[in-house]
Design brief:
Length: 489
């Protein structure tokens, strides 16, 4: 998973004093707390798992420092902060007091005040009770488009529980938290108040928002080359073009801009070695190819198609269709597996005429293929399933949705590309990590960028990551971030 959008714009709505007043404390709804507690473990698992250790403790300490100024009753007990092992730049919160931030977003940040602002923005959504105000809108919202309308029907209480179903449900939950522009303005305004009261430099607000603007612009240039797509769950915060400018104006209005804590050195120490982009344990996207070194799997998507890497599935989309790759342990026949996939796609209600699967061999593996026609709210589509006997106890499959009459055609090259990788190929896949370096005499942006662990746009990535303008001169002693290859954990 990769590239999301955090937070959104700044201020232009009235702020209720009760939200920020220590005398008018607000208690969280007990039912919200209970629901957040019930969903926490599954949500964390589906979104990459939780970071642990000193870095996670550091994030929690910053969150608690900011949370003390939210006006929530007993913030030390009411608020919980989790760092997700996700390659998506995002942060979000749920009404029951749980705040989540991804490691990928932390890689963009330059100091602790920016982290404080991101966490403050999310606690502001909780304190201002924004999610409940958006419930009616969310109930009308589409979750995952046509693909989700079919794949989202997969049940979670079977062998397929770790495949499409949880992602569809979590995507739905995240879309429920999608906020309006006015709510985003209010959350940004409150976050600036919180971090200023907590002793931070309010520059952290416009700083992280500018970093996100740069990252979004760079991603737009790279998307056709990286074949990555923003996952649905990351779209909880619309990002307006003038967001950083709004935040800067309000930070200036505090009279504290440039004053207060930034703790850049401490923050950079905390993110040294931080994973960037995909965790090899969840598979990696490299151009049009997805490779999972632990499972020994590799496939290539058609030219121009994009992928989103989930914890237990890969979603593929392009001009002529959508697909998902998943699978796992299964000891029955290929035919029964495909039948079970279709049965759960329609929630066991029938209605689809499923032709008998056709036996084929793909790259030395036994496989079956079948397709049928389904009627959706967006019209008729062809639903195709190709399942592969990976070994005696594991089957993997593609589910593909294409316009009626297209069948598996648009994805035929992908279907035929699935193969086993060699141990040497698996061992060659290493994670990308943040490495903080001190500029030495003679170092330039170009020379340092040449060390970045990417094949293309190295200078542009380096400048964006460090918030540096083109042709900027580096000063000896200055600390900058690089993305280099590391070792697996």
């Amino acid at each position: 998973m990769r590239k999301g959008v955090l937070l959104a714009a700044a201020v232009s709505v009235a702020i209720s004093p009760a939200i920020v007043s220590a005398q008018a404390q607000r208690y969280l709804n007990p039912s919200d707390i209970a629901e957040a507690q019930r969903q926490h473990a599954a949500l964390v698992q589906e979104l990459g798992g939780a970071e642990t250790g000193p870095r996670a403790a550091y994030v929690e300490s910053v969150g608690r420092r900011v949370g003390a100024y939210t006006g929530l009753a007993n913030p030390g007990q009411a608020l919980h902060f989790t760092t997700l092992n996700s390659a998506v730049e995002n942060a979000f919160s749920v009404p029951g007091g749980y705040v989540y931030i991804t490691r990928q977003l932390m890689a963009l940040m330059d100091d602790e005040s920016q982290l404080a602002f991101a966490l403050g923005h999310e606690t502001a959504h909780i304190a201002a009770n924004h999610a409940h105000a958006r419930q009616e809108y969310a109930q009308r919202s589409s979750v995952m488009g046509v693909l989700g309308s079919v794949l989202g029907a997969v049940l979670g209480n079977s062998v397929f529980g770790n495949m499409v179903s949880q992602t569809a449900r979590q995507a739905s939950a995240m879309r429920t938290l999608s906020f309006s522009r006015e709510q985003e303005y209010q959350a940004d305004s409150l976050a600036l108040r919180y971090i200023t009261a907590a002793g931070y430099d309010p520059a952290g607000g416009p700083g992280i928002l500018a970093a996100l603007t740069r990252a979004t612009a760079l991603e737009a240039r790279l998307q056709g080359r990286t074949n990555r797509q923003t996952p649905e769950w990351a779209s909880t915060h619309p990002l307006s073009e003038n967001r950083a400018q709004r935040a800067l104006a309000e930070a200036q209005a505090t009279g504290r801009l440039g004053a207060g804590l930034r703790n850049r050195d401490g923050y950079l120490n905390q993110i040294e070695g931080l994973f960037v982009d995909d965790d090899p344990a969840q598979g990696v996207i490299d151009g049009p190819t997805f490779t999972h070194p632990d499972l020994g799997i590799q496939f290539t998507v058609p030219q121009g198609y994009l992928m989103s890497n989930g914890t237990s599935e890969v979603t593929i989309s392009g001009s002529a269709g959508k697909a998902q790759f998943s699978g796992g342990r299964y000891t029955g026949s290929l035919e029964s597996y495909v039948g079970r996939v279709f049965q759960e796609l329609v929630r066991g209600q029938g209605g689809l005429n499923i032709p008998p699967p056709q036996r084929v061999t793909i790259n030395g593996m036994p496989a079956v293929l079948t397709a049928t026609r389904a009627n959706t709210s967006s019209g008729s589509v062809d639903v195709s399933v190709v399942a592969y006997q990976w070994d005696r106890d594991h089957i993997y499959h593609f589910v593909m949705l294409t316009p009626a009459g297209y069948g598996v055609g648009p994805f035929s090259s992908m279907v035929n590309s699935l193969r086993r990788i060699t141990p040497a190929e698996a061992a060659a896949i290493r994670p990308k990590i943040i490495h903080v370096v001190t500029v030495r005499p003679g170092d330039t942006a170009q020379s340092l960028a040449s060390r970045m662990a990417y094949r293309d746009y190295r200078l542009e990535r380096f400048l964006s990551l460090n918030g540096l303008p083109a042709n900027s001169a580096l000063a000896p002693g200055q600390k900058v971030k690089l993305v280099v290859f590391g070792t697996r954990r």
